[in-house]
Amino acid sequence: GAVVSQHPSWVICKSGTSVKIECRSLDFQATTMFWYRQFPKQSLMLMATSNEGSKATYEQGVEKDKFLINHASLTLSTLTVTSAHPEDSSFYICSARKGDRALRNTEAFFGQGTRLTVV
Amino acid sequence: DAKTTQPTSMDCAEGRAANLPCNHSTISGNEYVYWYRQIHSQGPQYIIHGLKNNETNEMASLIITEDRKSSTLILPHATLRDTAVYYCIVGGAAGNKLTFGGGTRVLVKP
């Protein structure tokens, strides 16, 4: 199957600093990528939809100024957690769907996740 | 996207078939049924998806009822490595987001 790669796999940062997480589709182009967050023993919660060349669409309750998303190319989307606080500690996961919007039955592929710990 | 209902957890014996049910009674005509699983501390892994017809691949089989209001994922010969949380999701076109529910925590026992 297609590969989506996230970097870094884990990161520890100090409170108040910013952290950037990269999501790359390695062998296909993705006009749309998705960012999720997962707290321990909970399901994945969609944070935002990243659209290549345009602004991201954020889910209700997600602060767009705190979670900056950039999708500058068809293979790369980045999530920057600004002014991180301990409550932002979580497992962040990106996904991308192969093909364009005309392809209705394409599956999504997920990165391996990034575990963020803010101390 | 339509919501899904899955049992919270289930156990199955190693080597036996595991049948995972999912209800999606509000599914619309153009929505697909997707199954993913998540092994601890990893990103979700795609398993299979379908629209109306039953589907089979090297990992599993997907049985969708005629009215499309429910489906069953079948792992034909469960192994210990199949222990994971299994998510049933319904969704539409390629650009649409996938919304995760609670999933079923499957424990395969020796």
Going across the major beta sheet of chain B, what is the strand order? 1-9-8-3-4
Topology of chain B as a string of helices (H) and strands (E): EEEEEEEEE
Distance between the termini of chain A: 36 Å
Strand content of chain A: over 45%
Structural class from helices and strands of chain A?
mainly beta
Low-confidence stretches of chain A: none
Number of helices of chain A: 0
Low-confidence stretches of chain B: none
How is the biggest beta sheet of chain A arranged? 7 strands, mixed
Largest interface: A-B, 33 and 25 residues
Mean pLDDT of chain A: 90
Helices and strands of chain A, in N-to-C order?
EEEEEEEEEEE
Shape of chain A: globular
Helix content of chain A: under 10%
Percentage of residues in helical conformation of chain B: under 10%
Q: What is the end-to-end distance of chain B? A: 37 Å
Based on DSSP secondary structure assignment, what is the total number of beta strands of chain A? 11
Radius of gyration of chain A: 14 Å
Rg of chain B, Å, rounded: 13 Å
Describe the structure.
- The complex is a heterodimer of chains A (119) and B (110).
- Chain A is built from no helices and eleven strands.
- Chain A has 119 residues and is an all-beta fold.
- In chain A, strands 2, 4, 5, 6, 9, 10 and 11 form a seven-stranded mixed beta sheet that branches. Chain A has a four-stranded antiparallel beta sheet with strand order 1-3-8-7, with no helix packed on it.
- In chain A, strand 7 and strand 8 form a beta hairpin.
- Chain B has 110 residues and is mainly β.
- Chain B contains no helices and nine strands.
- Chains A and B meet through strand 4, strand 5, strand 9 and strand 10 of A and strand 3 and strand 4 of B.
